[in-house]
User: Fold these one by one.
Assistant:
Number 1:
Amino acid sequence: MSSFSSKIGVLLAAAGSAVGLGSIWKFPYVVGENGGGAFIILYVVCSLVFGLPLVMNDFLIGKLSGKSAYGAFRTLSGNNRWQWLSCLMIITVTLLTSFYFVVTGWCFYYMVEAAMNTFAGMDAEALTNFFHTFEHQPTTMIIYAFIAIFLTAAVLWFDVNKGIERLSKILMPMLFLMLIAMAFHMAFLDGGTKGLRFLFEPDLSKLTPKVILEAIGLSFFTLSIGLGILITYGGYMPKEQDESMLSQEKNVVSTSVQMIVLVLFVSLLAGMIVFPAVFAYGFSPAEGPQLTFVTLPNVFQHMFSPTLTSVSFFALMCVAAITSTISLMEVMVAFICEASGKTKQPLNRHQSVTIVGVIQLITNSLCILSMTGSVSWLTIMDKNLFDAANNLTTNILIPIGAMGTSLFTGWFVPKARYQSSPLVSFIYLMMLRWIVPIVILIIFLESMNVF
């Protein structure tokens, strides 16, 4: 099985999988909808209290089994009773990528249009019309989704350490530098301090049970929990022959903590880019999902160098998106390689990447055709495939996957596999057995409007 060559490679690849559009696109508008500073505190606390045990758990499942999400549960349990969880993760990732590449294509399209100075002179209404017009251009959307798929497949064509690890070591530092530079620039806008106060001064009156559940749900989404990504990357962790079980656990804990810190850092930087700009020019922070593709291009038109700012921001979005699509597709590639290894004609990495790439071309094309109304019958429960896949993965499949891995480790993995101190083991197992599953169940029921 392929593996990373260094611990920093694992960390940057895992952080890249978690950062993505969740931190750059979703985080700012969810914070804006939920009141700013108080939500930020909740998000950080939830990421550390609930997210950390699940991130550690995913890494540990992969590390101890030495397998991807497909084979890890069977290896650790010694039977096939938990293979349903592997299949669930593969289905979840397949559905997620069926619309994730569409949004990634939007980022590339907006970067190109920004470079051509298309947004010059457009007000909010014109930008809204521009976005809606683009949403109904299936050919253009398919072309840009194909570009994102091709670039991702090109990285995965190489072995793990030559493809994912090497590019992560380039893209992630680039992403950090771009974020810091843009955040620094936005901080000096006239009126930008209002945005920073919105982000960092908590208004406790904004806290409600729904906001708390939103914070927990966002932490799960931005940390790539329940998708099999971190299990697969845990299986790729470099192994030393003299590495004890306790040493493996310490490596997993340190990598998990460092990854979460990086994700929180990137998310906060994204907020420091968006909200000073939004407040400086009198826009509402609660614009929702259109904040990135409608409100911000309008904001950038009021700045000193609108073209450079727009291009830089959407280039940043593209880098973040590609770091996530790489990890999502790798779960599918690893699944095909590992599953076919038990057949008479096992598939190599190049063949697996080709198969996954074709699947992505088909599913994303269908998603776009359904979303644009080009094929009217492509709907599920009166929703187009884009909205249906988004709702199904975010509200149902990801929570079930996260709960499944928590219960699997908490109740069914032999305790002899863990060498931590009794107190640490007790707290860890209490979180996985009871607290985390109950929290996930509450989020799941709330998303289904049960209460």
Note: The two ends are 46 Å apart (CA to CA).
Number 2:
Amino acid sequence: MTLKIGFIGIGAMGKPMVRCLLKSQYGVTAYDTEAAAMKAVEGDGARMGKSTAAVARDADVVVSMVPDTPDVEAVLFGRDGLLEGAKPGQLYIDMSTISPVASVEFAKKLAAKGVIMVDAPVTGSTFKAETGELNIFVGASKDDFERAKPILSAMGVPQHVGEQGKGHLVKIIHNTIIATTMVGVIEGLALAKRSGMDLKFVHGLLTKGTANGFLLEYWMPRTVLQNDYNKGFFTRHMVKDTRIALETGRSYGMPMMGTATSQQVYALACNLGLEYVDLSSIFKLYTENVDALNK
């Protein structure tokens, strides 16, 4: 019998993730508040859901991939939300990037209704989502991890990082490092360009030094060096993730000074119209708006 999966949130990441599940012969019913988003996977074999509650009633497992903490809350507890259609013992997997503090609270509320929550946020952006090679940080009990593992393996490589909530925590730690490192990489390359040096030449030198890393060696050639920011991780999402990181830091009494600075950079970039392109587009902030920044 084919396992029936309900998938909530058919955005830039959700679409390729649904396609990976379909390729692995899972039956998928998709739901999104935007009808056009659902249509994008209907041609691949996904069924169209009428609401989250309706999807949950028919599914063995429900997966969500939505933008922010309030969106997950609405998926679970809002009108026509998961709890209106969920069954006792049902598995719910959230693959969004949300507050780890809220994640634990959501899990407690779901457990009171007999629903099991696993948090499984991903890294790799759309590049890896399309090939089913996402890195997946899973917060769950060992038994719940084993139950979710075959489904998650269709979309990437699941890694059990601890109890429920720890997947979301590790993802926020991960994105905190990306947020601050990206600013450093971009400022260095922008300085090279400002000084009149050949950008590709400098990039080649840097990849052979201690400064090298994934962002410099693999991300920059896809975006900055091609002047193409149309595919990747939206700048607006990093504003959200750094906000969650700062909130999480406060809950642990941890100062996050570098994160606070990087959030200001991404927020400014969004204000200049770069919110729906890859976050490395902050390069344009430094190179095309540098005179305004100097005033």
Note: The chain has two domains: 4-164, 169-294.
Number 3:
Amino acid sequence: MRIAVTRERTDGERRVAISPEATRVLVTAGHDLVIESGAGSAAGMRDADYESAGATIAPDRVTTVDRAGLLISVHGPTSPDDLAEVTSDHVVIALLDPVWNPAAAKALAATGATAYSLDLVPRSTRAQSMDVLSSTATVAGTQAVLTAAYRLPKLMPLMITAAGTIPPARLVVLGAGVAGLQAIATARRLGAVVEGFDIREEALEQIRSVGAKSINVPVVEDGADQAVHNQTALTPHLAEADIVITAAQIPGRRSPILVTEAMVSAMKPGAMIIDLAAIRGGNCELTRADEEVTHDGVTILGPTDLASGSAFSASRMFANNVVKLIELVVTEDNTINLDTDDEIIAAMLVTAGGEVVHPQVIEAGGMQ
């Protein structure tokens, strides 16, 4: 089958959806790879690397997309210009975020293309090798700590020097999913003293397993507001922290507020918050996506492009996940798997036959 890989056009995106190594795997499996020129440049992957792996280099997007087959990218086609090139002969595989943005899914369905959304991969053992979200979160969690270490006005590890003892930085991570746990592990490697919090009991054990102290907040009774109780209990921990990383996200919904303005005011001047949920409004009440906010001497960062940090490694992880999905989606006779009795297909199939077919996307867009 023809597999076309386009250059990313989203501002700040440095990843590419298919690496030269993944290209070699797909070519060996009998597929024809067409890569838009420069698609991997920002990730340190040259056109010549793709050609050596067996791909054909196309000079522009139109030439890349102009024939039937799979259309692979990190972010799916959403602009009118990009959608104009997509037809019913295409099968799109990308991060479409359709529950959050059902209008874009509806526009893609109107082209007649079949589309699988990488951000709808089920969290199951069988789908683990296709889990782009976990790969993305691994990079984002690491990059958050590296960003904080670079920006913080003090050193991270404990150091005993001739000029005196330098105490370690204190870091609190709120939300112990993949990104949060990776942030904890990275901060521990850099020598910080780390605490972590999550509302899930099993996540507290995971926090401890990567070397941090878990913050235990009792469940309230008598109908009291648990979120407010959590904020009150977390305030003294944040007041002692040099760095706070928030990483609580709910697919397709606005990020929950974990850190209020009052909690920020209680923090030390010079402290920093890095909000990994900024793209959905943020876990901190003061977060502004891709902006730097200063409040009472505390810096709040809301970066939305951390997943494309370490772009070479991030692209290789992303590509490996996509290859596994392609192996499921493309059958032995080069037809497309639309079997919704398969849990993975059912979870990820967004459009088919000119219609939005995913129940959650239909509900989110009021398409009933």
Note: The chain is about 35% helix and 20% strand.
Number 4:
Amino acid sequence: MHIAEDWKDYEVIETGNGMKLERFGKVRLLRPDPQIIWDAPYNLEKDGAPDAVYRRSKSGGGNWEFLRRVPEEFSVSWRELKFSLKLMGFKHTGIFPEQAYNWSRIREIICGAGRTVKVLNLFAYTGGATLAAASAGAEVTHVDAAKAMCERAGKNAALSGLKDRKIRYIVDDCLKFVEREIRRGNTYDAVIMDPPSYGRGPRGEVWKLEDTIFDFVKKTTGLLSGSPLFFLINSYTTGLQPSVMKNIADICLDGRGSTEAYELGLSTGRKEVVLPSGASSMTTF
């Protein structure tokens, strides 16, 4: 497992009884996490002083309950990068802090390349990986089906002093974009993807990860340049273990490169407890 580090104002304060208490700057949130099946050392809602709690609904989804005033938008920083956050549906805030480990890897690889690097970031959300790559000097194509996420990524770039970097924001279905890029003959030195378990494109296209991930990865490898740097796959889908992702990458890349598959984790207030928070497969060439 690799632990995310270098957060300036984010932490997991405590975990237990299916919940995690986090601090984003001055905002304290209590959110559910199905992997937290151990006891909490105290009542996280009563004694942890959260500003808002995400309540799950028995019918699916849920909603935020505000116990104190929470700003409509607030921010956190990782190294010199800054992210604007807000409370969204499905318990989201606009950032996945555990991805900081991958951001560090991305920057290290791009900085060590010694040349201009073209990066394709698919299902790019609010742009954490986009900013990491751009801050290392890469030219980034940021693709997400949600216009609001692309707009927030642009806002994060501006907050991080990267507004003038070469970043293209594309609102599109990722599969259709990849297919068009292949027809155009465009290539990239690095590919990042963070596909959802389930989703819909801007025109109602349905995405189910288990039905599409292998074919999608295989197709996307056709966009790699003749001198690629890395191919990164992220997953938050239950049952898609790191070793499964490694197998997909190795088969689709026909054995090229060296693939490491790993869990991502977050440190917590208890030194003996590390919170597993997703998985990644990184192939380097």
Note: Helices lie at 44-47, 100-113, 128-135, 147-159, 174-184, 209-220, 242-252.
